Amino acid sequence: MFRAAGCDNDRHMPYVDVWVVPVDCAADWLIPTPAEAERAARFVSEPLRRRYLRAHAALRAILQTYTGAPLDFGVAEHGKPYLPAEPELEFNLSHSHEMALVAVSRDVAIGVDVERLRPMQECMAIAERFFPPVDAAALGDVPPAAREGEFFRRWTRIEAKLKARGIGLYGAGAELDGDWTVLPIDVGPDYAASVAANCRELKMRTRAFALDMPAGHDAFE
Ligand SMILES: CC(C)(COP(=O)(O)OP(=O)(O)OC[C@H]1O[C@@H](n2cnc3c(N)ncnc32)[C@H](O)[C@@H]1OP(=O)(O)O)[C@@H](O)C(=O)NCCC(=O)NCCS
């Protein structure tokens, strides 16, 4: 079993593994759970359905390397999934277009967010409505040509914190209290991504996941 994430024994620093899952380069080899199949059936297009199923297959495959507990997910008040059989195993999933990220840690609650960069002409108006005021003001200072990219970088930072807290978009616009570490994740030029934890320091390890391994194969590099 893969070494559990959480605390760096040398420095006692919380750490997080971030698994990078390119969902469209992957074969389907993990059978969906009934709940996943039911939710997938509600997607309007086949690509969306396929990406959802592959992201969730990857999530389960990854979590299986950290725990032998049954992957019967519970859902917290605002929708954040957790494992009732091992609630100290923290994880979070984000997916956007062809990219999924799975963050796993122990002891420290984490959130992850990935967004595909795309045209967003109304980004200033969205920031003024949903970002904390300090982020909206900072975005206004960015030259217009660079504003859309900066919008998505800030968006993922803010969303990752909200997801760490488990409040999701219910908390949009709020300044979160306490010490936070938010780290950028490099997943190529087409995406912005961040991982966040409610702690002073956080060590991140990024790992590539391949979904095209046959079942039973050690799919982890
Ligand atoms: C959950 C939420 C943060 C997702 O944001 P997103 O950028 O669209 O999606 P992401 O890909 O980054 O994350 C989705 C994953 O985060 C996880 N998640 C769901 N709710 C979460 C929450 N409150 N906190 C942290 N993680 C959450 C799930 O694993 C979800 O995967 P799934 O949708 O495939 O099941 C956002 O939709 C939200 O805040 N929802 C709150 C509830 C809400 O506002 N409902 C509106 C109707 S009342």
Please provide a brief summary of the model.
The protein has 221 residues and is of the alpha+beta class. The chain is 29% helix and 25% strand. It is built from 5 helices and 10 strands.
Can you walk through the features of this model?
The chain is an alpha+beta fold. The chain has one domain: 4'-phosphopantetheinyl transferase domain (Ribosomal Protein L22, Chain A, Alpha-Beta Complex). The chain has 5 helices and 10 strands, in the order ββααβββββαααβββ. Helix 3 (123-130) runs antiparallel to helix 4 (133-140). It is globular and about 50 Å long. The protein starts with 6 loop residues before the first strand and ends in a 13-residue tail after the last strand. Mean pLDDT is 88; it is low at 213-221. Bound molecules: coenzyme A (COA). Coenzyme A (COA) binds at residues 52, 78-81, 92-95, 111, 113, 159, 163, 166, 168-170. Coenzyme A is lined by residues 52, 78-81, 92-95, 111, 113, 159, 163, 166, 168-170.
Beta-strand residue fraction? 25-35%
The hetero molecules present are: coenzyme A
Assign a percent range to the helix content.
25-40%
What value does the Rg take, in angstroms?
A: 17 Å
Question: What does the main sheet amount to?
Answer: 5 strands, mixed
Q: Topology of this structure?
A:
Layout: E1 7-8, E2 13-22, H1 34-40, H2 46-64, E3 74-75, E4 81-82, E5 89-96, E6 99-106, E7 110-116, H3 123-130, H4 133-140, H5 144-165, E8 181-184, E9 191-197, E10 203-208
Parallel strand pairs: 2-10
Antiparallel strand pairs: 1-2, 2-6, 3-4, 5-6, 7-9, 8-9
Coenzyme A binds at residues 52, 78-81, 92-95, 111, 113, 159, 163, 166, 168-170.
